[in-house]
Amino acid sequence: MAKISVLGAGSWGTALSILLSNNGHEVRLWSRFQEEVDALRETRELTSKLPGVHIPEDIDITADLKDCIETAEVLVLAVPSPYIRSTSKLMAPDVKKGQIIVNVAKGIEENTLMTMTDIISEEIPAAAVYVLSGPSHAEEVGRGIPTTCVISGPERETAEYLQGIFMSPVFRVYTTPDMLGVELGGSLKNVIALAAGTADGLGYGDNTKAALITRGIAEIARLGTKMGARMETFGGLTGIGDLIVTCASVHSRNRKAGYLIGQGYTMQQAMDEVKMVVEGVYSAKAAKSLAEKYGVEMPIIMEVNEVLFENKPAADAVRDLMLRDKKVETPMLPW
Ligand SMILES: NC(=O)c1ccc[n+]([C@@H]2O[C@H](COP(=O)([O-])OP(=O)(O)OC[C@H]3O[C@@H](n4cnc5c(N)ncnc54)[C@H](O)[C@@H]3O)[C@@H](O)[C@H]2O)c1
Closest Cα partner for 178 from 236, 219, 241, 222? Predict the structure, then answer.
């Protein structure tokens, strides 16, 4: 059994701590905020986000980052993506050479266009950085609902070691060498989920949702393969799998924010209402910059940006998507 420190005590960090503890590992859960630590210790529950989900007594909840790092074989980094760089900077002095960090945050940094594992590797060059991603809402993992994910990273043996650590009868883990594809799928799906939520908020139906999911993954794959990721990954759990769950689920904060925008809220009003980090808003800008940088057509991503940042009415964005130039669905196939 391994000693594991989970850094970030939000929904996902808490749910993963419970999973890892149930798997028999020695788990510590870190938050940067002492008041959060005190509340979690007192109630043994993340009342606001995972009500009714008990945090086992043997999970040590702490604000001592240095100790968490020094005592762990594996670090799971579970803070929201806008805080990955600042948290990595805090961690860097204590991480040992070769220490494993598993990133579970989903996002692309707005100004640098870097993935989360790129940022961690830049800030903590000593670390061996891996990623865990897939269609996995904390609300369901916390309740032991069967879920599947994917681990990726530089070394196959380490990926398989981590697969064994997370795997349980309710949490099935696959491995893949395509780290870039895993991270791009996990980040860009949040932008498409904003669009899917907006369509729901406008009162559109399942046809529209299916169109956004299918054309959305086509856009993500077009960009991803141009950047060097593998096409197969976008047809897998971290591609279409995560996109489906995020566009359809009641738990998705990106879909929820989009829904409010479809109902007429501004982006800021929607963010305030959801009261959590809506990562798709950050990734939307990054996705637009990546599309421009790599010369890839991403019409849904572009319309989401106009709705979010240029106050374009959502219904106009949908009409413009419908009335784009006529296209072939499968441009690579000969007649
Ligand atoms: N929630 C899910 O179902 C889920 C599933 C898979 C992946 N993820 C990814 O995991 C990451 C975390 O998501 P979440 O749902 O746990 O988010 P969350 O909003 O619940 O996380 C909030 C927590 O982050 C920490 N935090 C906040 N500000 C911080 C700061 N400035 N510095 C350090 N820590 C800070 C605090 O512990 C806070 O409680 C995200 O990137 C998300 O995309 C989430």
Answer: 236
With beta carbons less than 8 A apart as the criterion, state whether 44 and 55 touch: yes
DSSP track, 232-290? HHHTSIIIIIHHHHHHH-TT-HHHHHHHHHHTT--HHHHHHHH-S--HHHHHHHHHHHH
- Is the distance from CB of 297 to CB of 222 less than 8 angstroms? yes
Say how many C-beta atoms besides its own lie within 10 A of residue 2's C-beta: 17
The pTM assigned to this predicted structure is 0.97
The residue contributing the CA closest to ligand 1 atom 39 is 10
Q: Is 225 helix (H, G, I), strand (E, B) or coil?
A: helix
Q: Find out whether 253 and 278 touch, Cβ atoms under 8 Å.
A: yes
pLDDT at 171: 98
| C-beta atoms surrounding 207 within 10 Å | 9
**Phi then psi dihedrals of residue 171, to 5 deg:** -140, 95
Q: Which residues line ligand 1 (CB under 6 A)?
A: 8-13, 31-32, 36, 49, 78-81, 83, 86-87, 104-107, 136-138, 276-277, 279
The answer to whether the beta carbons of residues 183 and 131 sit under 8 Å apart is: yes
User: Residues 81, 28, 54, CA angle at the centre, nearest 5°?
Assistant: 90
Assigned token pair, 31: 């938050």
Name the nearest CA neighbour of 153 among 116, 190, 110, 114: 116
Q: At what angle do helices 299-309 and 206-227 cross, to 10 degrees?
A: 110
pLDDT value for 172: 98
Instruction: Please report which helix (H) or strand (E) contains residue 3, including its range.
Output: strand 3-7
Tokens 């963010």: give the residue: 271
* Block mean pLDDT (10 aa), the chain, length 335: 97 98 98 98 96 97 98 98 97 98 96 97 98 97 97 98 98 98 97 96 95 97 98 98 94 94 93 88 95 97 96 94 92 91
**In testing the pocket of ligand 1, which one of 6, 7, 12 has its CB within 8 Å of the most ligand atoms?**
12
Given a contact cutoff of 8 angstroms between Cβ atoms, the answer to whether 107 and 169 are in contact is no
Residue 243 corresponds to which tokens in the numbers above? 């996109």
- The whole-number pLDDT of residue 74 equals 98
The β-bridge partners of 4 are 27, 74
Give the phi and the psi of residue 230 in degrees, each rounded to 5.
-100, 135
